[in-house]
Structures are given as structure tokens and as C-alpha cells.
Amino acid sequence: MDYAGQILSTLGVNPDRILRESFGETKPLTESRPLDAGAVETVVFLHSEKVCQVSSGSTLLDLAERNGVQIPFGCRQGQCGTCATRVLSGTVQMDVEAGLTVEQKNAGYVLPCVSRAEGTVVLAV
User: Fold this and answer.
1) Nearest-CA neighbor of 92 among 49, 72, 83?
2) What is the pLDDT of residues 72-113, one digit of tens each?
3) Which run of H or E residues covers position 60?
4) CA dihedral over 26, 74, 47, 57, signed as positive or negative
5) CA proximity to 82, closest of 62, 101, 65
6) What is the DSSP string of 75-120?
7) Residue 92: beta bridge partners?
8) What is the pLDDT of residues 2-20, one digit of tens each?
9) In whole angstroms, what is the distance from residue 89 CA to residue 106 CA?
10) How many CB atoms lie under 10 A from the CB of residue 108?
């Protein structure tokens, strides 16, 4: 897939038009921060009216599922983009962001399936 993407880029295809699907192992976009077993983050699911505590390391999608918050998803690997959700405030670290368009990234969307809260985070879901 990487080689095909390089060819398409060389031919002048806009990177936003090059889509990938992968249901195998993925490489993290950035190094994840070390997990602090004692750290607890707060996540607010605004439209669902839920405030949840989570130990660092758990993904936002896992937290949502455990608390009855519905976020559609497909691959759980940050590739398909189905779970794209807007962050209204706070900091989120994503392992992979291939499933987001440039427009989504600029608008503050993240992929909850591969995202972890850093501190207090408010999501529009």
C-alpha cells in the first residue's frame, strides 16, 4: 500500500483522495507516552451527558462502550475513519491518524479507537 500511495502521489493525486484500508497490524504515528498506572483522566461525552473517569492507557472508544456511549466504529485501528469524533476541549493522543482527512484534522476530530485522553477531555458525542 505504501508503494501504491507513492505512485499515486508522484502522479499528482491529492493525498486526501488516496484512501487506505488495513485490517492487520498498524505502526503508531508517534511514540505513545509511557503509561502511568496511577493516572486518572476525565472524559466528558457532551451530547450523551456522561462524565467518566478512565485510567491512562484506555482508548476513548473502550471508555465510551463501557459507559453506554454509542460511537460507530469499523476497524479499531485508526484506518477506516468511521469513529471520527470532534474534540471540543482538552488534549488527546492518537496512535494513528490515517483514517482522518486533512479537513477533519483541522476541525479537531480524532479517532477514539486509537486515542487516549491526556487530562480532562470533552467530546461532542
Assistant:
1) 83
2) 999 899 999 999 999 999 999 999 999 999 999 999 999 999
3) helix 60-66
4) negative
5) 101
6) -SSSSS-TT-EEEEEEEEEES--TTS-HHHHHTTEE-GGGEEEEEE
7) 117
8) 778 888 888 999 988 887 7
9) 14
10) 13
State the pairing for strand pair 109-110/115-123.
unpaired
CA 18 to chain centre: 19
In 3D, which of 15, 87, 105, 14 has the Cα closest to residue 45? 87
In angstroms, the CA 95 to CA 44 distance is: 21
In 3D, which of 97, 87, 71 has the Cα closest to residue 120? 87
According to DSSP, residue 5 is labeled H
Q: Which residues does 82 contact at the CB level (< 8 Å), separation at least 6?
A: 72, 73, 74, 75, 99
Grid cell, residue 56, equals: 491512562
Other C-beta atoms lying within 10 Å of the C-beta of residue 107? 12
Which pTM does this prediction carry? 0.73
